[in-house]
C-alpha cells in the first residue's frame, strides 16, 4: 500500500477538489481519497506537496494504435464496402505503435478505440464507411502485448454526411447521396432485428437490444436530425460524434438525452461540413444540459492534447470542473466504464496523473502517470514513513 500526499486532488467525483489531500492505493486500486495527510500505518508515503493530481485522461473517440501515429490510419476503415457491422477495431490494434506510448506519457490512460476516418492532410477525402464496425474501451497501457479491454462492445460506429458520400462517390460506388446513406443504414437495422440473424449482422442485433450504443459521426444539423429520426424509428441507444453544428439544436439534444463526443475543438473550417464551426460548440451544449465529452480524434490531433483542448473550453466560458470532467468521468460514462475509471474514488482503478501545475494549462509539466497503481511515465519521489528514506519511483507497483 502507498499514498501520495500533499497534493491538490481533482477527483472528478462527488468529493470535488481536495486541498492538501492524499490518495491511497493498494493492489492497483484506489483505497481512499481524503483531505489531510493521515495514512494507514505502514503505508509507503510519496510527498507531492504543491503538485496537482487528476484522473487519467480518457478520449472516447480515438484511432490510436491503428497502424500509424502519422496522418493516416490505414487499417482503421474497410474501404471496399460501405457496410461492415461485423468488423472490430480491436482486430487492427497495434500494441507497439509509438503513438500509444506518447498517449501514456501525455496522461491519456483510456481510449474508446473506434474504426473509421483514415485521412491525409494532403487531400480532403476521408475514407469512412456508412457502418464501420465495433469499437472497444481499452487502456493505453498494454499487458503482455495485449490490450487491456475494459468494455469489448463499446459502440457500433456509423457515419452520416459528406465524408462517406464523397468518398464512395469518388470511388464510383454507392452511396452518393444522403438518401442512400440512410437507406443503407435502415436496411442494416432491418436485418439486425430479424429472428434469424446472419453473422455479419449480430452486432446490429445487439445494438437493437440496447446492449451498447450506436456511435454516429455527424457534423451538420441535417445529419444530426437524421440520426435522431433513426433512433426514434429503431429505439437504440446513441452517442453523436463530432457534432459540429450541435449548438444549433442543443435543446433538442438535451430533450432526447443524447450524449455528444465533440471535437477536435480547434479544427479549421476545412471542407463544407465545418463551415459553421465554433469553439463555443461544446460550451453551449454543456450549458444547455447535454452530456459532453471532447475528443482529439487521434491522430487528427494527438490524444495527449486533450487537456489543452479542455483548457480552450474554459477560456470560451465552460466551468473548469466541467471541462475536466469532459476528458475524465463523462467519456468514461459514455464508454460504459465509469465503474472502473474516470474519477478518483475508492474501488476504482488507480489511474491518475501528477502535474507540476494547473492540469489544463499548456505550460504545466507532467511529473508522473500512474495506471493500475504503477508508474508508467515519469517518476515520483518516495519518502518512506517508516524508514525516512527516499528513492525514485519509476515503473513500480506496490501491493
Automatic annotation (TrEMBL):
One of its GO terms (molecular function) is hydrolase activity, acting on carbon-nitrogen (but not peptide) bonds. Residues 286-377 form the Amidohydrolase domain. It comes from the Bacteria. Transmembrane segments: none annotated. This is Amidohydrolase. It comes from Candidatus Fermentithermobacillus carboniphilus.
